[in-house]
Amino acid sequence: MNDNSGQFGRIYCFKDRKVLKGSAKASKKLKALNNVLDEKGLSNILWWKERMQACKKPSTVQLVKRLEYSNLLGLDVNLKSGSLKEGTLNWEILQFKSKFPREVLLCRVGDFYEALGIDACILVEYAGLNPFGGLRSDSIPRAGCPVVNLRQTLDDLTRNGYSVCIVEELQGPTQARSRKSRFISGHAHPGSPYVFGLVGVDHDLDFPEPMPVIGISRSARGYCINLVLETMKTYSSEDGWTEEALVTKLRTCQHHHLFLHTSLRHNSSGTCRWGEFGEGGILWGECASRHFEWFEGNPVTELLSKVKELYGIDDEIAFRNVTVSSENRPRPLTLGTATQIGAIPTEGIPCLLKMLLPSNCLGLPVLYVRDLLLNPPAYEIASTIQAACKLMSNVTCSIPEFTCVSSAKLVKLLELREANHIEFCRIKNVVDEILHMNRNSELREILKLLMDPTWVATGLKIDFETLVTECEWTTVKIGEMISLDGENDTKISSFSVVPSEFFEDMESSWKGRVKRMHIEEEFEEVQRAAEALSLAVTEDFVPIISRIKATTAPLLGGPKGEILYAREHEAVWFKGKRFMPSVWAGTHGEEQIRHLKPAVDSKGRKVGEEWFTTMKVEDALTRYHEAGAKAKARVLELLRGLSSELQVKVNILVFASMLLVIEKALFAHVSEGRRRKWVFPTLTESHRSKDVKSFDGVDEMKIAGLSPYWFDVAEGSAVNNNVDMQSLFLLTGPNGGGKSSLLRSICAAALLGTCGFMVPAESAIIPHFDSIMLHMKSYDSPADGKSSFQVEMSEIRSIISAASKRSLVLVDEICRGTETAKGTCIAGSIIELLDKIGCLGIVSTHLHGIFSLPLNTKNTVYKAMGTVNVDGQTRPTWKLMDGICRESLAFETAKREGVPETVVQRAEELYHSVYAKEEFPRKDGTVLEQFSKTSFNVSDGSNHQLNNTSGKAGQRIGSTDQMEILQKEVKSVITMICQRKLIELYKQEKPSVLEILCFSIGAREQPPPSTVGVSSVYVILRPDKKLYVGQTDDLEGRVRAHRLKEGMQKASFLYFTVPGKSLACQLETLLINQLPNQGFHLTNIADGKHRNFGTLDPAFESLSVR
Fold first, then answer.
1. What is the end-to-end Cα distance of the chain in Å, rounded?
2. Rounded to whole angstroms, how far apart are CA atoms 813 and 830?
3. How far apart are the C-alpha atoms of 966 and 953, rounded to whole Å?
4. Would you give the distance in Å from CA 754 to the centre of its chain?
5. How far from chain centre, in Å, is Cα 448?
6. Residue 1097's pLDDT band (boundaries 50, 70, 90)?
């Protein structure tokens, strides 16, 4: 740690009782403080000094010069306002700071949140605030933000990695010359926002993804990563990680603090820079660019102690272990693999996540799918996910909207009792959707299947019956307390003489939160107070208004007056001028004018020359505000009480919310997969590691019609390939021939299948790999002092050390970064090793000399990307074929990219003079010829095309309300009308077409994935009981579009699918013209007049509802 004392002030070491730099006067003043800081306190000051040295803004640097590192605030007691005398505000702030020494402290002082010393410097540097008093050198650094800007300031600080402790002052009157009492109201951490007071507001708070504290250590099995979530009070510990997987985790998981265990220093080099030589270099390079601290002892218990110290958590608080055994689970993706297939968004690489999910699927479901790709599940979980997805693909009933709530948000709001009525409504939606799915026979099976994937995601093991029972209890408990949508038993007060905005502002902060039955007494008192206020205004102000209006000819400059709401002062006053009578003659209104007095604010100061009130009105206002405050306090008490009741069920709520996140993610994936015409692969459990002989291709990977995952087959044709892989492929091909695309496509398909997802192919058999590793091109790393070849060798070393018989290894253009002869030999040796290991995979190369080497391989197969000759020019076919391709198309590529013609011609001359006559013999001495044919076809026996069958409609629990009755009538009529039309059209030639299955989509529900790409006819049951008939090939999009219209948010739908758009159009027009004959009102009846069929069929006029 560098000590720039001249720039960064003075540091006092209390351990040695020595002043490193400073005056005798200062040392005397510090004698009273030298018992405050111990060795831990000194380490905290040094920690802040490092942060001060990182400040760059000129204004911050000037402030830093005024710091004195003798206390946690960095205050110089010799400067103006720098006193730390007991009882002063500075002393009080220092006491709060000592409880959370590594957090920025903001203290409420009136209408501002203030920071002193070191904390003021942080605010100026990272929150863009200006210092109080400018840059005067004779006073301590001070900065702050207005109360209304607190949220923005906290966001700025947490975004830059700082935790913030917020100190509030008790509101209300205080005795003269006494200081307001203050308390720590909460904290804001990266990934965990400040929630104090949220229970009383009527808006939501966005919760970012929680940021864990990460600890990394070394064990006999490899690297161990421990993650602790302070918000959730959970931790996990996973062993056996590779350094590449750790780097991927660090890149994708934003963390609050990083701790490195001293076990990482134990290496063959014996150097403190534990990654300087050999293994660990990649991880060291990643950690060295971040802030981290060393720790020792037990990696788990010591890390938990560090977390409790950081967040000020009592030692008695227990953290729950959510570690799920990683046995039989594939290794996490390496950084290279994740970036090269776009599992982590990377510039220039097609993003796999964007292909898996529709564009309107955002937030928590995307994070779940990303984490699943980066950490593939065990075979049992992957099979369960696939089974659930298959059921989702065949569901015909409508599905819930799937309310997604952050687990961290649930835990924090309930723990701190800050959940407001909006959050309770959202929690009720979560449990209601679970119960809705349980009541539906189709959806219940999906719900049961996803219990285990939810266990893996949350670490909570909950049986299905318990989940349902607890959800029922929760929905009843919330429904009994919270005022839900559509319930309006607590209307805002309204009186003609009082501005409506006044009552709206005063009462909207507590009315509509809980049911009136729980606050009946307080509600009635507010109502009586509002009536008394209205009466006072009527008696004291209205006569004056009447007098002014009765003026015979109100000219410019005449009397003016009105009753107005003074929002800033939360009062209703009379505002007027020139209304005093010139002669007091006892006329109407004069008595009220005599009672007027100037209006004053809460501090007794006159508001203005035009604002007036009376004692009666002021008394009524005071009574009304006191009644309102009492009612609001009661509402907040009830909400906090409900939080306490639900707190004991928090594990159930966390489980239920994650279950819905998974449901939404998988339903979205299935919808997008069906749209893209992807298929479900046959997922096999590999037995290679168990020395069991493979039968029926159980350890083979067969993919028919594989297309690049970034191509949309539904929008256009892509070049498909058939892959039958039973061993290692050695792949050659020209530049631009599709080698890299093939490797990415195979990697993505294998990963998707291993996770239980759909794959971009016509059919597929995919083993459940224990690791999937893709190595593409390497770049040099100047920061680590490594060339591109060094980086490549480091990654290859990691691949071959992690590869097993159950692995998929894909290496693109091996050993491209060094001289040809030795690079060829290294590549050959690597191929021999992979062949010996027995893994599946592909190694692509342009090093044709490898075929001249005496390679000791048994199973490696030569494959090539095909080319054809068109008009004397060689063109790539992008098809996988048997054999070797010697053509590189290097000269053609150079020309196409604009290399000067003279350069390319000279290159051709040099090539023909040296290489034209060379032939590359095979090991048996024969010369290999390039295949001219394209790819082979997978035999019928291996083409396992999966058929999607439609399931039965789910049973819905009936209701007796009018909308349910209307829905049943409409359903019956459209079934009969369309059934008759189909009989007429097909005359029993296609009996399978004649059955009309009509399904409903209720409010807050959406169509199932089985409607994607299928022609549908739908009927909207509007809230006004009118109907709208339409047809579409995108029912989900059409439903979404209709519900965006005003008043249509809760509209329900009926729909049925038909084979083809033409038939859908006919039935649409038929219904538009025939439904009015059955007594139904349509909003789009005019649409039927523009069609040529279905208008005058008397046979349908006699149809009636049965």
1. 87
2. 13
3. 20
4. 23
5. 25
6. very low
> H or E element: which one contains 356?
helix 352-356
Q: How many Å separate Cα 687 from the centre of its chain?
A: 37
pLDDT bucket at 1062, cuts 50 / 70 / 90: confident
Exposed, middle or buried: residue 926 (CB in 10 Å: 0-12, 13-18, 19+)? exposed
Residue 520 has pLDDT above 60, yes or no: yes
- C-alpha–C-alpha distance, residues 939 and 935, integer Å: 13
Q: Are 460 and 323 in contact (CB under 8 A)?
A: no
- In this structure, what DSSP letter does residue 679 have? B
Rg of the chain taking only CA atoms, in angstroms? 37
Spell out the residues 6+ positions from residue 1050 whose beta carbon is closer than 8 angstroms to its own: 1003, 1004, 1023
Q: Say how far apart CA 190 and CA 257 lie, in whole Å.
A: 10
Residues 6+ apart with CB under 8 A from 718: 707, 708, 711
Task: In whole angstroms, give the CA distance from residue 504 to residue 572.
Answer: 13
Written as one letter, the residue type at 502 is F
Contacts of 107 (CB under 8 A, 6+ apart): 89, 92, 93, 96, 113, 114, 115, 167, 182
Q: How far is 852 from 859, CA to CA, in rounded Å?
A: 17
Strand pairing of 840-844 and 771-775?
unpaired
Q: What token pair was written down for 428?
A: 């009720």
Residue 1093 has pLDDT above 60, yes or no: no
Which residue bears the tokens 């800033």?
568
Angle between helices 364-374 and 650-675 (to 10 degrees): 80
- What does 601-617 look like in DSSP terms, one character per residue? -TTS-B--SSEEE-HHH
SS3 935: coil
Do the beta carbons of residue 328 and residue 769 sit within 8 Å?
Answer: no
Under DSSP, the state recorded for 955 is: P
Strand partners, 563: 574
43-78 pLDDT tens trace: 889 889 999 999 999 999 999 999 999 899 999 998
Query: In terms of Cα–Cα distance, which of 365, 384, 333, 347 is closest to 751?
Result: 333
- Determine the Cα–Cα distance for residues 688 and 839; give it in Å rounded to an integer: 9
**The pLDDT of residue 420:** 92
Residue listed under structure tokens 């089974």: 387
